[in-house]
Design goal:
This protein has 12 helices and 23 strands. By secondary structure, it is of the alpha/beta class. Helix 11 crosses helix 12. The termini are far apart. The chain binds copper (II) ion.
Length: about 500
């Protein structure tokens, strides 16, 4: 059966006012495979200007039981922002943020969409909304040159959580620069109330410099084609939801997260360490799964996850393709406060081992990076930045207080081995250390893995910290010294950076 009889029936009923009722017609058109298209009749009431929000915020529920005309105004802005502490990147944005502004409408709404492209832009842009029924999802109608404005109108026929993105050539580059976001088309009855709603979106980024290489970093097209990202991030920056920017909630709360994946390349294995998703609306669709540990979010797809908080502490969102979390930035924190629940979990454990510098403020690292650019980096700034980076990188073994662990990890505090030849430590960090070493009279015969994934200035700052803390007194190590050692030492294949 095609859809005409339904529409005709509805049109006839419209005359009697039956199709403009609060509830959608309880018809499941067989020809759509069972999905419920929501043409609930013409828009009613005054046009409404959509509230748009920046991540991690979500606009309030529409709280409407009738279809309306909703006006969305979105502006494309190309701007430099921090992608990681002390690392700048030129993002192309919908609304000035990555991901772009969150849009929330109700199924059956008629959306009048305005796309503006700021006069300072260098590129033309458009928008393809996955929640639009029509060619290009709007892309064909919204090609917008810098300083221009385009407009089109669509009816939100299907409920769901949809990705939108720029689709101007080269499409991959526009998406890689951050041009994506989410539009929620609420079901006609709305969503059950919760205590917090958050907006989280993953994306992969490609820079010429390596991960955390400071300064301005341009886009690397070849890395993007090779699908070899430098960064995999939630909400467009390594620090978007870590340290002081962590998401916050209390115990005994119900949390809903709208999680999207902009790609351009990677599929996300979205996981929240220490929680179980009570409910996941996978693929942004209508059906849900319960009691989920990790949900797969395709590039250009989304999921709604819900859970209840019980135990206080830091809960860590990751892409469980785990190198992305710990070495490319795909890590964010939800900080839950409230009374301990020893019957559910024995007590608060030290979580710094696991997430290291991610719970601390990286401000000293940024300060050091900025100072270095102006050529005024002081030893104190190096020590401050190095102290933050030491956590989770070296403290895992050598401990926070540098004392090491007897017979297992040698001490760095007052280590005669270290202080005898401070610059030798550069080699130890870059190349690792094996075989017997004697520190303060005790012999260790173990393995320290090479830490060559660290950038030159990270190594310089960490070592300056180590050489001038816990009663140690030594020189400041410069980035150039580290670069020299890196360039002149032959490292085994796997450690070659
Ligand atoms: Cu674009």
């Amino acid at each position: 059966m095609n859809r005409f009889p339904v529409i005709l029936a509805c049109a006839a009923a419209l005359a009697l006012g039956a199709c403009t009722q609060d509830k959608p017609p309880a018809t499941r058109a067989a020809d759509t495979g069972g999905s419920l298209k929501g043409d609930f009749g013409p828009p009613r009431g005054e046009p409404i200007k959509a509230v748009l929000t920046s991540p991690p915020h979500v606009p309030p529920a529409t709280n409407r039981n009738y279809p309306a005309k909703v006006i969305v105004e979105l502006e494309v802005i190309e701007k430099q922002m921090e992608i990681a502490e002390g690392v700048n990147y030129t993002f192309w944005t919908f609304g000035g943020t990555v991901p772009g502004s969150f849009i929330r409408v109700r199924q059956g709404d008629t959306v009048e969409f305005h796309l503006k492209n700021h006069p300072s832009s260098k590129m033309p842009h458009n928008i393809d909304l996955h929640g639009v029924t029509g060619p290009g999802g709007g892309a064909a109608s919204t090609f917008t040159a810098p300083g221009h404005h385009t407009q089109f109108t669509f009816k939100a026929l299907n409920q769901g959580l949809y990705v939108y993105h720029c689709a101007t050539a080269p499409v991959g580059m526009h998406v890689a620069n951050g041009m994506y976001g989410l539009i929620l088309v609420e079901p006609p009855e709305g969503l059950p109330p919760v205590d917090h709603e958050f907006y989280v979106m993953q994306g992969d980024f490609y820079t010429v410099g390596k991960y955390r290489e400071k300064g301005y970093q341009p886009f690397d097209m070849q890395k993007a084609i090779d699908e070899n990202p430098t960064y995999v991030l939630f909400n467009g920056a390594e620090t978007s939801m870590t340290g002081p920017n962590a998401l916050k909630a209390k115990t005994e709360q119900r949390i809903r997260m709208f999680v999207g994946n902009g790609g351009p390349n990677l599929v996300s294995s979205f996981h929240l360490i220490g929680e179980i998703f009570d409910k996941v609306q996978y693929e942004g669709g209508t059906h849900f799964q319960e009691n989920v540990q990790t949900t797969l979010i395709p590039a250009g797809g989304a999921a709604t996850v819900e859970f209840h908080t019980e135990v206080p502490g830091n809960y860590v969102m990751v892409d469980h393709s785990i190198f992305r979390a710990f070495n490319k930035g795909a890590l964010a924190i939800l900080e839950v406060t409230g009374p301990e629940k020893p019957l559910i979990y024995s007590g608060k454990q030290v979580d710094e081992m696991y997430i290291g510098d991610k719970v601390a403020s990286l401000a000293p690292v940024a300060a050091a990076a900025t100072a270095k650019e102006s050529g005024t980096l002081t030893k104190e700034q190096q020590i401050a930045a190095g102290g933050v980076l030491f956590k989770g990188t070296c403290s895992t073994c050598h401990q926070d207080n540098g004392a090491g662990l007897p017979n297992v990890f040698p001490p760095l505090a007052k280590s005669d081995y270290l202080l005898k030849d401070p610059r030798h430590a550069i080699e130890v960090v870059l190349n690792g250390l094996t075989g017997p070493v004697t520190v303060n009279g005790n012999t260790f015969n173990s393995v320290m893995p090479p830490m060559s994934q660290l950038t030159d200035d990270e190594v310089a700052n960490i070592l300056t910290y180590v050489l001038n803390t816990w009663g140690n007194s030594g020189p400041a190590i410069s980035k150039q010294e580290v670069a020299k050692v890196r360039a002149t030492t032959k490292r085994p294949e796997g450690a070659a950076h």
